[in-house]
Write a structure and sequence with these properties.
7-stranded mixed beta sheet, Spore Coat Polysaccharide Biosynthesis Protein SpsA, Chain A, Nucleotide-diphossugar_trans, transferase, MurU, single chain, alpha/beta, 6 helices, two-stranded antiparallel ribbon, Nucleotidyltransferase family protein
Length: 227
């Protein structure tokens, strides 16, 4: 199984930390955010990894290299300007192959076990679905949530019992059939269509997870690791 780590964002809310350092290379617990993901993927024996980048992307390539020191093999999908999630993944599809792959946002912190990913991919095949999203309980900075979850399927948000998309999921390449790789496109556009067709599975993860969106949240993780 292959994985894609999304690392093309500007990280504007993290400024000034991201003025000269790409957000995925910000350090927590002595390691870059993206480094934690690589190590977890290596432990799960998911070793073929694609990383997209835009803002200060040359620093990401210089820091990670071919991935061998982390026990993985990295290929890069460079974007002259950030394409947003859906188009960025579509551009990288030639590197990801024909089978479902794991997608992880570089700027989340989590202890989720990547060894679950092949089982989620198997469920896509069994249910003839296009994606499986990992949801988390709504954090304090996003109490309204993103989606409802019912009987293992993602639904558009209609109630107060909603959850937040974790930035992690397993996707079939077919999910991106209608996405243009040259037009910046957020993930929510193809997601909306696939949800309407009941083609998006989901599950709730209640372990450690944090969207590292601000310097304060980065500091919170640093403090939790110190204890």
């Amino acid at each position: 199984m292959r994985a894609m780590i999304l690392a093309a964002g500007r990280g504007a809310r993290m400024r000034p930390l991201t003025d000269h350092t790409p957000k995925p290379l910000l350090k927590v617990g002595g390691k870059a955010l993206i480094e934690w993901h690589l190590l977890r993927l290596a432990q799960a024996e998911i070793t073929n990894i694609v990383i997209n980048h835009a803002w200060l992307g040359e620093q990401i390539e210089a820091y990670l290299g071919d991935g061998s020191r982390f026990g993985v093999h990295i290929q890069y999908s460079a974007e002259p300007t950030a394409l947003e999630t859906a188009a960025g993944i579509k551009k990288a599809l030639p590197l990801l192959g024909e089978h479902p792959f794991l997608v992880i946002s570089a700027d989340v912190w989590t202890d989720w076990d990547c060894r679950v990913a092949p089982y989620l991919a198997q469920r896509l095949h069994q249910q003839q679905a296009l994606a499986h999203l990992l949801l988390v309980p709504n954090p304090s900075h996003h109490r309204e949530g993103d989606f409802d979850l019912a009987h293992g399927y993602i639904q558009s948000k209609t109630s107060t019992s909603s959850y937040t998309y974790s930035g992690m999921g397993v996707f079939s390449p077919r999910f991106f059939d209608q996405v243009n790789a040259e037009v910046p496109t957020p993930l929510r556009e193809p997601l909306h269509q696939a949800i309407q067709q009941q083609k998006v599975l989901g599950s709730l993860y209640q372990g450690q997870w944090q969207d590292v969106g601000t310097p304060e949240r980065l500091q919170q993780i640093e403090q939790s690791l110190a204890h």
